[in-house]
Each structure stands twice: as structure tokens, then as C-alpha cells.
Write a structure and sequence with these properties.
The complex is a heterodimer of chains A (about 250) and B (about 240). By secondary structure, chain A is mainly α. In chain A, about 75% of the residues lie in helices and about 0% in strands. By secondary structure, chain B is of the alpha/beta class. The radius of gyration of chain B is 20 Å and the shape is globular. In chain B, about 40% of the residues are buried. Classes of the chains: A mainly alpha (about 250), B alpha/beta (about 240). At the A-B interface, helix 1, helix 4 and helix 11 of A face strand 1, helix 1 and helix 3 of B.
Amino acid sequence: MLPLSLYFAWGDTRARYRRSVLGPLWLVLGTAVGVVGLGFLWSELLHIDKSTFIPSLSIGLVVWQLLSGSILEASGVYIGNARLIRNVSAPLFVFPLQLLLRQLINFCHNLLVVVFVLLIFPPPLSLNQLLVVPGLVLVIANLFWLSSLIGLLGARFRDLGPLVGSFMPLMFFLTPVIYRPNQLAMTEFIAWLNPLTYLVSLVRDPMLGFAPPVFVYQVSVGLLISGGIATLCILGKKHGRVVFWV
Amino acid sequence: MALLKFENVTVQYPIYNAKSMSLRNKLVQIGTGGIVSQPTAGIVTITALDNVSFELRDGDSVGLIGHNGAGKTTLLRTMAGIFMPVSGKITRDGRVATIIELGAGLDEELSGYENIYRMGMLLGSTRSEVTLMVPDIEEFTELGNFLQLPVHTYSAGMKMRLMFAVGTAVHPEILLVDETFGTGDAAFQSKAQDRMKTLVGNARIFVFASHSIDLIKQFCTRAFSLEHGRLMEVAL
């Protein structure tokens, strides 16, 4: 089913930019504007050195777009495919997978900005950079169960979409995207209560050349196992009902 | 070897209104132990198929007759495995293709060619298998250069041609077609008829819902009549 989801995701991406001149580059441009604008503004406001702040911010923003994009769109993932679900018997997980792949295609576009920033402000190169791979795998796996679950609940309870939508802007500030958890000093533990903090660290820390703390991996794997099992149980019980909900 | 067997199948489905879809209502219900709001508030359950039994084997072509709302489309969806029965047993052996709602599964923004891949893969073929089907689909649909245009430029009949061509090109063992099929013009109908004949000749199962008894007589050898969710076999 992976090729099917991938074809769907690719079709979405193509359809969205069909008659636009810059096409998917608009995404890159948007992220670049955000990084440059926020980078200079916040580094002045917070009196931080640009060469450490801008790389951290740009990776944070790009990862955040992957996380928030997947979570925001998840509540509509089955509702949006209602006609398909009602008329073709396809396995349900195709749709969250399609969402995730579409977000990953966007993510790959945005990585251009990160590469560009890291060329200007090179981080110390070490073997730690290789930890990006397991980090991304953990992020993607966690997003997969999360978007399947939110999609299922969102199909049954139509308030969930707007509810998630109103919390995500707040989450942007509660998650260490602009800042880093250790800058919170005394209240660092608050940031670590937020699961999204772990997902950002998994990708950002290795890219900047240092290994995330071990507990980041422990919590992320724990989340994956508990969330994955919970989602499988709920989906197993309710997958026959989704067609009546959408 | 295709098989489709229903044993005492009952399908019920809930219709939700805004009240029952609301999270607040559910929370109040949980918080008050269901005292404040009635547990079934706003959910109406409809019995769409009532104790339906039949057996279809290779080479069976069946017409579904019944007035609007009799359960024809529900029966097709249950045959396809889209609706799950609340009781009874369904045995299904063979690859299923459905042509139920006009345009379902098509992405209107994408071109006809891209949609051939989309539909084909959705019906369980691999990309390379679809590539092999393309010439046949081009020939059958007679859409020519329209296949390069986005599907939102197509008329209902053209969409039908595309859906029908892909639905039959994947060589389904069980083909389920709803009455939207009637949108095609006379030339398409006769071409479709030939195609159906080959499909049925290749020992496959074909189920076709329609209000037109003439169409059913053309395509089918058996007929089921549905009334308020109950099914009876009738003579053609």
C-alpha cells in the first residue's frame, strides 16, 4: 500500500502547484522568509549570537512544520477522503500514510533552507550527525500513529479539528522551536512535559552536531509503543464504523 | 474462481446529527453518567439490509431492482466489503472492483492519465500493471487528447467511460456497478455491453443495480428484488 499512498501524496503535491510559476518552491521561499525574518528579529531581541541561533531556529521551524502540518491536517484525513472510503474498499491506513508522505515531501523541500543555513553557519561535524536517521524514523513513526488516531477521532467528533487548530499556535511557543529547552533554566522540565519537544530534539540536536540525551530516545520509543498499541486497538475495534462517520 | 456468499446478513448504520457528533455532548454524557443527555440522542439507526442470503458463483450476472432507498447501493457496498454487517456471514473470494458513485476515486485536478494510475492502484494493481492497461483504456474510452486534461473538464459521461474502463481493465473477479452507469451514451452502452459479456464469459461475477429493466435484461441472467432491505430472487 506504500506505493499507492506515495502516488496519492505525489498527486496532491502536483495538483496543488499545477498552475503556479514557482510551484513547490513557494514552500521553500516561505520557510526561507520565516527563517531570515524571525532569525534576525529574535536574535536582536534576545541578544543571542546569530551563528548559533539561526541554524537552531531554521531546523526547529522546518521540523515544526512537519509536526504541525501532520497534526493539523490529521483530523480531516478520513473526512476529506469520504467519497473514496464510501465507494472503494481500500485499507484505511492509506490515508494517514498519504498525509504523512505529503508532509515529508514538503519537509524535503524545506530541507533546502536548512542546508543553505548550515553552509553559512557550519556546525561542528561529527558522527553525531548520523543520529538524524534514527531520529527521523522515530518522528515519522510517532506521527503515523498520532495522525491515524486523530483522524479516527476527528471523523467521529467533528469538534476535534477546530480544537486542535486552536491549540497548535500555542503549542508553537510551548515547544522549543525558537528557543532551546536548556534556555528555560529552572523551568526546563515544563518543556519536557510536552511530547513535541522530544520529536524536535530527535532531529535538531544531531543536525547541530550533538547527541540528544538518552531519555529523549527512551521517551520517544515509549510513546511510539504505547501510542501505537492504543491506536491499533481503537482502529481494530472501530475501523468498520469509519465509513458511517465520514 | 470467484465466489460471493451472504448468509443471513444484516446491515445497520447510524445516522449522526450535529448533536451526536459533538465532543461536548459526549463529555457531558460521560461526566454525568448518561443522565443528562439520553445515550441515543441524535443517533438514528437504519436497518438497510435485513437478513439477506444468496450465493453467487462464476459466471453469475445479477441485476438489482428496487425503488429509491430500497438498499441497492448499500447491498453493493456490503458486497464490496465497504460496509460491515452487524450480523451474518459474508464469504468473498476474488478481486473486487466497484463503480458506485460517479467520480469517486478520481482526483479532479489531475489529468485523465494520472487518474488511470490512481484508480488502477486503488483497485489493487501495481504501477507497472497499470502501464500495460493504458493502451486498452485509451482505446475503450475513446477520450483521445482529453486524457491529458484535468478530469474536472470532463462531462458525466466521460467520467463514466474512464471509471468503467479502469474498473474493467484491472480484470476484477467481482464487478459491482451502480445505476450511474446509465449516464453513458448509446455508443458507450453497446461497447460496455461487449465488455461485460467477455467479463461474464470469463467466469466472473457481475452485479448491476438499475431502474431500467431493459438494461438489466441486456446484461444479466438473474435478478434480485430489494424491498425495505429484504431480498428476493425474481425471474427475468
